[in-house]
Amino acid sequence: MRGFVRLLFGRRARLRWVHLVLGGALATPYVLVGEVVIGPVTGSTNVFGSFPLQLASFAVGLPLAALTSLFPLTRPLEAAAVRWLCGVAEERLAFGPARTRAARARTAAWFTLHLGFGGIVAGMTLAVPPFAVVLIALPLVAALRDSRLGLPDVLDHTWALALAPVVGVLSLLALAGCAAGAGALLARWAPALLGPAPEDRLAAAEARAADLAVRNRLARELHDSVGHALSAVTLQASAARRVLDSDPDFVRAALAAIEDTTRRTVGELDAVLGVLRDGDAPGTAPAPTLDADLDGLLRHTRAGGLRVTATVAVEPGALPPVLSREAYRIVQEGLSNALKHAGGPDGRGAVTVRIGPADGHLEITVENPVTGAAPARPGGGHGLRGIADRARLLGGTAEAGAETGVWRLCVRLPMSGSPEGS
């Protein structure tokens, strides 16, 4: 019983009833236009006083409503009303203007149904409650029986008078049932008529995929630049602390490298965050490349006490920009791993970096001895996973692992056919 009452008079049913009444209100101007047409056609001077002529005016007005539904704001407004009043999930509705012929046809069908059902339910809402109240009160109020109020003669019988309150209550229940049923039907049809078309869903999916790709790239940039900077600064500060009293020149160089590393990383961080902030222009700091920034990267890494031997057998300035940029990040991440795992007891480990052509590919190799335990995540942490992602996006390969006490990272990137944006 409680479920039945909730179905007819619960919050959702009441909101859908309001939605139908709003549809009836929207239908009123079209009905008035219909009356202007029906009056001269039928020769009637009192269309409002005839129920059949009112229905005819309603029938004439609905096609006019379908035509005006082609207004661009119709679908957004109707979708918003359906979301809040009919309880339809937001992702099942399209809130943009209908742009294709099929979408406009569905919008016109929905608007016609909304106004049609709404006009009927709104009319019943205005007429049925007063009639039901009269029937319920009729046996109790003699003045109502004496005034007649246009009631049928059958109510003169005692049995009919006794049944009048029952009929009145049933009329109210029937009204609530009609409103609940019409509201449920509209809520069920709304996704099909106001929802996104397959091409809209495809466009939305492509937009989400593009957004995720951008965010993943930004996440890689943040991890590589900030992660390397923190590793380098940590090692530089540790090395400077150990030789603070015995080698002041080294301490000065390490502090200068820390200052330069943090300043450069803050610029990169600001550039990346500028892209993430809605409405902000991207940062002005250029993306680092092999040609412009490799020497500085090696210098800052050596300033922390790590012995780095680098062999570059290719002209960095001749590489495509995107290849030079991604190769720089790969070398940077390789050196970050070396900073974590190649430091000996004195903090001054050795790393070998080789960059050169090999069978139409740019081959990047970073090797360092593993003096302590193997990396905690031999399957690859975020950095190695980021390297693999960069290589895959450029059509290359990446391999990393420990062999006989040496950690080796080898990445091969095609030197031709690299995309110009990523």
UniProtKB/TrEMBL annotation:
Record bears the keyword Phosphoprotein: yes
Domain Histidine kinase/HSP90-like ATPase: 326-403
Residue ranges occupied by any Signal transduction histidine kinase subgroup 3 dimerisation and phosphoacceptor domain in the UniProt entry: 215-279
EC identifiers of the protein: 2.7.13.3
InterPro entries reported for this sequence: HATPase_C_sf, HATPase_dom, Sensor_HK_TwoCompSys, Sig_transdc_His_kin_sub3_dim/P
GO CC, any one term: membrane
Domain of life of the source: Bacteria
A Pfam family annotated for this UniProt entry: HisKA_3
Reactions performed catalytically: ATP + protein L-histidine = ADP + protein N-phospho-L-histidine
Presence of the UniProt keyword Secreted in the record: no
GO molecular function: ATP binding; phosphorelay sensor kinase activity; protein dimerization activity
Keyword line: ATP-binding, Kinase, Nucleotide-binding, Phosphoprotein, Transferase, Two-component regulatory system
Protein name per the record: histidine kinase
Organism: Streptomyces lincolnensis
